[in-house]
Amino acid sequence: MKTLAVANQKGGVGKTTTSVNLAAALAAAGQRTLLVDLDPQGNATSAVLATDDPAERRSLYHAIVGDTPATALIRPTRFERLSAIPANLEMAGAEAEVARLDDHNKQIRRALGSIHEQNQFDYAILDCPPSLGVLMTNALVAADELLIPIQCEYYALEGLGLLMQVMNLLRDGGDNPDLTIAGLVLTMFDSRTNLNQAVVKDVRDHFQTVVFDTVIPRSVRFGEAPSFGRTIFEHDPTGAGSLAYLALAEELLKRQAAGIRFVPPAAS
User: How many distinct structural domains can be found in the chain?
Assistant: First the structure.
């Protein structure tokens, strides 16, 4: 199972939108996919699981600080080949509790161990909270690769240096020496504005081949879909957003097949 953490400590960059729709697109492409919601807000959960039954929405919290195996937390979604581990407000409490545990950076990796052992998934997508807290650090330690959504706005590169620094600390410190970058995804792109085009050029000039060719367009449909508890494929199946995430999944799978991975740049 390849584990991808979708993370950016900057909020509002399309992180959950990317996690949900990339997971659905990978499942549509034939990959057995697990979406793990690590954000206490539970937005990714709401997009793929309709139930409000607490028993059906137990989070990874129970595997991290309790004795529930993570395999018991997996829930089927309405999509073929896509399953999910939900999140709820309990995950907010996990931040403090995990920090007190031995090897606190490795608790999510440990919790997901039973899922790795069963080998029932090809991909696990970890939707991280928008902060560089304990949960994101745990996700980076648990992941094979990091996928970073970047909004096509003026402050697009702000904070990326810190994220790269944290990655290198985890690599150099031995918590996850093999952690690499799957790629950077440009999101919320509006081709009508010179600013968006300039941001795309700046990001590509700076990171070059690390940036995916696929660009996710700005669309009101992305904002509408969560209010109906839908993915973009259900809400606007033939729209530009759906086509973009299908293309991103295809591009990701091609990179994976070719073994293309990127090492985070060293701090200057």
Answer: 1
